[in-house]
Amino acid sequence: MRMHSDFNVRDLNKLLLGMVFIELLFVVVYVLNVLWGSPSWVITKLVDLDDEGSIATWFSSMQLFVVGLLFFLKSRHANAIELPSATFFCILGLGFIFLSIDEAAAIHEKINAVLKQTAFMPRFKGDHGIWIYVYVLFAGVLLSLVLRNFFALWKRSRQIAFIMATGLLTFVTGAVLLEIISYQFLRNDITSWYYVMEVALEEFLEMLGISIVLYGALLLLMEANAIEGNE
Q: How many folded domains does the chain comprise?
């Protein structure tokens, strides 16, 4: 895949700003719906950021899926031997596509429902968050496999690697750190404004983080196309 020659960094900046605007709109509509007392269950179903069937959830799922595809496309430009390798980008692609499926199908919630029957599994208050320990374990294994490749990417394209790392950290802050705070301190009253604002911030950071990763992945692919074009 080659990007059109007129597609440049300015276009990517506009795309990023557009995604952030949409994400802020999701948050504003969610908060306004709560302020108005959720007058329509149909509208609430569509705009509730705490509902797996909301528009924002599907938006996030599509973002993650596109990021996965972009990394697969990038793997076609990579060398099978030199670092960062094609395998590295394929692993990233698979990881983001899994997160996309998880976002849409709530796989982590199903894992939690199964494992909460197991007494030795660590958990947060109210039997919540068992999935976090499982995912952190797998993330640690994955990190050990790709760390050398990431350092190689950092050396070759430091700015792009920094952008993607920042996006991933933003995503993890929302998806894990704020989720833990919610489990431990806020789930006892999901009608409180503390909980509503936590959900709004959590979901916004998740969407924002993936938008930044997507932006970085597009920059990476555009850089690869530019290199090929100069050869």
A: 1
